[in-house]
């Protein structure tokens, strides 16, 4: 039974109107990374950080899955082998497209996390600084987002999947941020076929067997059709 491991990044959600990490004029462009995407920034100004993620949560709720998300959901449903979907994105567009099993290595806007006891629960649409944890009742709620300097989630399981992949696909990622930028090398080490989908070649494009340039809404449905026709 063949196994396909897929990594998605901000590029796939950009076509649903969610700005990429480096997009000009987007939510990210209005703030320094150090202020809104680090634990130190949260400790320095929790209201700024909570408000930032409230805005992102509202923006994500208004977005709709695009043809790329739908193609990956179709692949998971129809492929006779195993499809593992890993995303760096914190939106829920994969789930709303129909994907059943999504690993959010950078957390999710839909989640809240207690900074004291690590309890997790569904985040309200609008969080507030000092929200109490429903488990320990301490006022240490934060967005369940992996910030810079923190360890991404499920890394051991992800590397197990990469080690057993027959095909590894990377979609809409820049190749700038590790550990995700190293996934292709790990998959190649275990002799997986590798394919990249992007608007332009990433920094690690030379490590892929196949590179497909263009919008994911166009390239992914075609690739999924090819895979399912085999």
Supply database-style keywords:
transferase, 3-stranded antiparallel β-sheet, 2 domains, 6-stranded parallel β-sheet, SIR2/SIRT2 'Small Domain', single chain, acyltransferase, alpha/beta, 230 residues, elongated, Rossmann fold, NAD-dependent protein lysine deacetylase activity, 9 strands
Radius of gyration: 18 Å
The main sheet comes to: 6 strands, parallel
Straight-line N-to-C gap: 13 Å
Give the number of helices: 9
- The CATH class assignment of the largest domain is Alpha Beta
| CATH third-tier fold name of the largest domain | Rossmann fold
Alpha-beta classification: alpha/beta
Explain how this protein is built.
It is found in: Cytoplasm. NAD-dependent lysine deacetylase and desuccinylase that specifically removes acetyl and succinyl groups on target proteins. Modulates the activities of several proteins which are inactive in their acylated form. Its main location: cytoplasm. This is NAD-dependent protein deacylase. One of its GO terms (molecular function) is NAD-dependent protein lysine deacetylase activity. The protein is of the alpha/beta class and 230 residues long. The protein has two domains: 139 residues, TPP-binding domain (Rossmann fold); 81 residues, SIR2/SIRT2 'Small Domain'. It has nine helices and nine strands. Strands 3-2-1-7-8-9 form a six-stranded parallel β-sheet, sandwiched between helices. Strand 2, helix 6 and strand 3 form a beta-alpha-beta unit. The longest helix is centred in the first third of the chain and has 17 residues. The chain is elongated. The chain starts with a strand and ends with a helix. 40% of the residues are buried. The mean pLDDT is 93.
């Amino acid at each position: 039974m063949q196994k396909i491991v897929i990594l998605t990044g901000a590029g796939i959600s950009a076509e649903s109107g969610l700005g990429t990490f480096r997009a000009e004029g987007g939510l990210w462009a209005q703030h320094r990374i150090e202020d809104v995407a680090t634990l130190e920034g949260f400790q320095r100004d929790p209201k700024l950080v909570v408000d930032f993620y409230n805005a992102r949560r509202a923006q994500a709720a208004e977005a709709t899955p695009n043809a790329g998300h739908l193609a990956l959901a179709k692949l998971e449903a129809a492929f006779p082998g195993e499809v593992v979907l890993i995303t760096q994105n914190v939106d829920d567009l994969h789930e709303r497209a129909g994907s059943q099993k999504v690993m959010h290595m950078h957390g999710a806007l839909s989640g809240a996390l207690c900074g004291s006891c690590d309890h997790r629960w569904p985040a309200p649409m609008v969080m507030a600084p000092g929200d109490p944890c429903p488990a320990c009742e301490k006022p240490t709620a934060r967005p369940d987002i992996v910030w810079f300097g923190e360890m991404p989630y499920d890394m051991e399981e992800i590397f197990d999947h990469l080690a057993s992949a027959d095909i590894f696909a990377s979609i809409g990622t820049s190749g700038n941020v590790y550990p995700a930028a190293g996934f292709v090398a790990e998959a190649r080490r275990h002799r997986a076929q590798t394919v990249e989908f992007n608007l332009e070649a990433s920094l690690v494009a030379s490590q892929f067997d196949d590179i497909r340039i263009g919008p994911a809404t166009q390239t992914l449905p075609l690739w999924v059709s090819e895979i399912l026709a085999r």
